[in-house]
Amino acid sequence: AAQEGFDAEEVEGALGEAGHGPLPVLAVVGRPNVGKSTLVNRIIGRREAVVEDRPGVTRDRVTYEAEWAGRRFKVVDTGGWEQDVLGIDASVAAQAEYAIEAADAVVFVVDATVGATDTDEAVVKLLRRAGKPVVLCANKVDGPSGEADAAMLWSLGLGEPMPVSALHGRGTGDMLDEVLKALPEAPAQTFGNAIGGPRRVALIGRPNVGKSSLLNKVAGEERVVVNELAGTTRDPVDELIELGGKTWKFVDTAGIRKRVHLQEGADYYASLRTAAAVEKAEVAVVLIDASETISVQDQRIITMAVEAGRAMVIAYNKWDTLDEERRYYLEREIETELQQVSWAPRVNVSAQTGRHMEKLVPAIETALAGWETRVPTGRLNAFLGELVAAHPHPIRGGKQPRILFGTQAGTKPPRFVLFASGFLEAGYRRFVERRLREEFGFEGTPIHISVRVRE
Ligand code: GDP
Ligand code: GDP
């Protein structure tokens, strides 16, 4: 719909530029010939075959974008697994395992005219263990007479079987409504190749702040053997650590543990490593040596995490060594040097004594929650309306630029687009950001605001 001087196309364009958040993933699994590919074609609204057979390319995964009732998501068709190599049971199991790793929700397709087979039962076990939301599709119900076959599939214990004819489209709408209920707004995991599995944490900070000590402290005896956990890349530099009842993936820890002492270019390698870790992570824990003056290097590392758009926690380490005086100056330094990241949750820790280690996980969780926050458009605009009324932009050159409306274009981190009647000054934009934070939280996350000006 056209909004106050912006036509729909302009709004769309601006949102496109701001980037939509990553889409949630739906996997379609089931035995061969139950109609998965046909169903995927239905879902993505295409008649032609899903598979583009490119010789020499092993097709082990096909992802398509789909939309239903205004919501977009990705569909993964697992139909193309090499059954000859794996054998049917193993291949179907592998698909389901894949779904466990990659998907936010699963459509499990069963051929209602055949009924539940042993292979189907085996997949049900896997799905149940995964704990992902499952929609049971009773396929090949081409007419009312097939409904009874569909009802038989209640026995699988996956809830209501949705009677569907993927071939003719019968019942697919109702099934997709169920799928939307099962799918989260955004995928649980988004970055890098590791979809699914534990949240990814980068422990960063300049040399000697205590990264290695902290890692050893939190890892302790509770290190998890990587291979035991499904859905984890076996990257030797990542470490799985059990903390606060959950498993976290600390990325790129090899560089922390094995200290390579490079004389020349050591800073360069250190910052390269920091950048790589930040890229792979969802949340950065920035360690600062509280016993020393906050340095330019500390700030540079913080900036790196902010610019990468990651959630962030700041941990002030070596708290055990602080006297009254140092504590006083530290607070002053934080106020003046780290003002721009005052939104980051803060923990005062000691990797040596273990002080406040238990506060680390809640802080990380807070930051991730802020990072994933989505403000509904209605609420955002009610807030913007009040803000503009109470605090209008200063008049410039006889004109008063006004925010007309806004929308959140994405999460991880939250991204906003504001549509305005004129150029908004930096000071005013900062004010808007501050008020947004006061209103909606966004603790532990940078937020991006871009402004579109009506010509
Ligand atoms: P996949 O191996 O699970 O991907 O199954 P396909 O999508 O390739 O379908 C296997 C066969 O079942 C094809 O011949 C389809 O035309 C047929 N089929 C798929 N869905 C339906 C349906 O809803 N009704 C009927 N009658 N046949 C279907
Ligand atoms: P990294 O270079 O960031 O990995 O830092 P290290 O973990 O190697 O620590 C550098 C030095 O600081 C070592 O001598 C540690 O023993 C010491 N250290 C680390 N954390 C603490 C702490 O919380 N308190 C005190 N007193 N010393 C610490």
From TrEMBL:
- Key words, A-Z: GTP-binding, Nucleotide-binding, Repeat, Ribosome biogenesis
Gene3D superfamilies in alphabetical order: 3.30.300.20, P-loop containing nucleotide triphosphate hydrolases (3.40.50.300)
Q: Which CDD domains match?
A: EngA1, EngA2
Q: Which Pfam families match?
A: KH_dom-like, MMR_HSR1
* Superkingdom, taxonomy of origin: Bacteria
Annotated binding of GTP 2, by residue = 205-212, 252-256, 317-320
Amino-acid positions noted as binding GTP 1 in the UniProt annotation, renumbered to this chain: 30-37, 77-81, 139-142
Q: Where is the EngA-type G domain?
A: 24-187, 199-372
| InterPro entries the record matches | AAA+_ATPase (IPR003593), G_ENGA (IPR031166), GTP-bd (IPR006073), GTPase_Der (IPR016484), KH_dom-like (IPR032859), KH_dom-like_a/b (IPR015946), P-loop_NTPase (IPR027417), Small_GTP-bd (IPR005225)
Q: Where are the transmembrane segments?
A: none
**Which SUPFAM superfamilies does the record match to this protein?**
P-loop containing nucleoside triphosphate hydrolases
Q: How does it assemble?
A: Associates with the 50S ribosomal subunit.
Its function, per the record, reads: GTPase that plays an essential role in the late steps of ribosome biogenesis.
Which family does the similarity line name?
Answer: Belongs to the TRAFAC class TrmE-Era-EngA-EngB-Septin-like GTPase superfamily. EngA (Der) GTPase family.
What is the recorded name of this protein?
A: GTPase Der
- Originating organism: Streptomyces luteosporeus
